[in-house]
Structure formats: C-alpha cells, structure tokens
Amino acid sequence: PREQVLVFGAKVQHFTGSGGKRSVEIGAAIRGAWQQVMDDADPLSWVYCTYAADGKALELAGSGLGGLAEFKDVLGDSIAWGGFRCYGVDRRGHLECKRPKFIFVQHKPEAVSAMKKAKQGAHKGDVKEALSGAHLDVTVETLEDLDEQALIKKLQAATGAHKPNGYEFDPGVFIEADFYGLGIGRACKAENSRNS
C-alpha cells in the first residue's frame, strides 16, 4: 500500500522566490574537488572557485595539497569562494590525535564594489550546499582575515568542551593553542598527573 503524506498550510518557498532554481551554477568539478578535501585519505587540502565571465556560474580556479599558505597565495582581486582543511591536534602524553577541521571561505576583497559583494551574498546558500560540512565560515577581505591565531580563536570558540591543544594549517607545522593551560605533549599536566 502507498503511504499518504498530508501537508498542512501553504507551500513554503525559498525566500528568494526562485522556486528552487539555483542562484548560481556550481559544476561537478567543484563538488568533486570538495569531496576530495573532505576525504581524510586524499591529500587535496583546498579548493578555490571564481565566477565565470557571465557571473552566472562558478568555476574551479584552483586546488592544492599545500595547506593554508598555498590557499592564501591563490586569493586574487575578485570575489570568489573556497574552503580548506586544517587539523585540530591533541598532543597529550605520548599520544597525538589529529582531527580534520574544514573552513568555508567567502572571499570579497575590500576593493570590490558594493554591488558585486551584494550579488555574491545572494549565492552563499547555494555555494554552502556544494561546499558543505564546514566547521567554520570565514569572510575574507584581506589576508589578515586568514591569520592563524585569529582562526584558532574562532575554531576554539566553535568546538565543544574538548578543545585541541594545537592546530596544523600547513603540513607538519604545529601551532600551539593550549586553551586550558595544561601543557602540550609530555609536558601535559593532566596526562602526567595520571601517569605518574
């Protein structure tokens, strides 16, 4: 037997009134590259998307393995979107645990007109759907908006009770973020008091 679904009230439409139509086209290459970034086993760590000449579609402008430093190098002078993977790192006692963290980036350089920024803002929902699963959204107007210490503060605020004691934005580069003041690695007071 077929199941009947009853719907009460008026049909809810998207607030833009687009009737389900996308505000910007996002190709399979972008979606595929982002899925690679989300895959811990894949070395791809960032994607960067720019607008096509007609402004109606996003194109994959770049992707790479190099971490945040490499991602910053591709940021241009035009509005764009992207995302990257970094790691929350716990070094407690003799153990190290890395957990991937994903950061969604809306790039809107200061020099870009207010009209272009407004048009870009209308696309955010569709872009976030394609680049889904991020732990943090960042709006980038200057490279200082991607400063590691500022990102650490935002990531720590976005985590629950268990906060990593460091982050890795570029391969092999550990940046300390000892939120609780317990120490890092073998100097971790919480671990040493239990293991003594």
Rounded to an integer in angstroms, the radius of gyration calculated over CA atoms is 20 Å
Total number of helices: 6
Helix and strand element order: EHEEHEEHHEHEEH
Number of strands: 8
Report helical residue fraction.
25-40%
What is the average of the pLDDT values?
Answer: 86
Proportion of beta-strand residues:
25-35%
**What characterizes the major β-sheet?**
8 strands, mixed
Overall SS class: alpha+beta
What is the CA-CA span between the terminal residues? Answer: 65 Å
Described by the principal axes of the CA atoms, the overall outline is globular
Low-confidence stretches: 12-18, 191-196
Give an overview of the whole structure:
The protein has 196 residues and is α+β, with helices and mostly antiparallel strands. The chain is built from six helices and eight strands, in the order βαββαββααβαββα. The longest helix has 11 residues, at 28-38. It is globular, with a radius of gyration of 20 Å.
Brief rundown of the structure:
The protein is 26% helix and 29% strand. The chain has six helices and eight strands, in the order E-H-E-E-H-E-E-H-H-E-H-E-E-H. It has helices spanning 28-38, 68-74, 114-121, 124-130, 148-158, 189-195; strands at residues 25-26, 46-51, 57-64, 80-92, 95-107, 136-140, 166-170, 173-176.
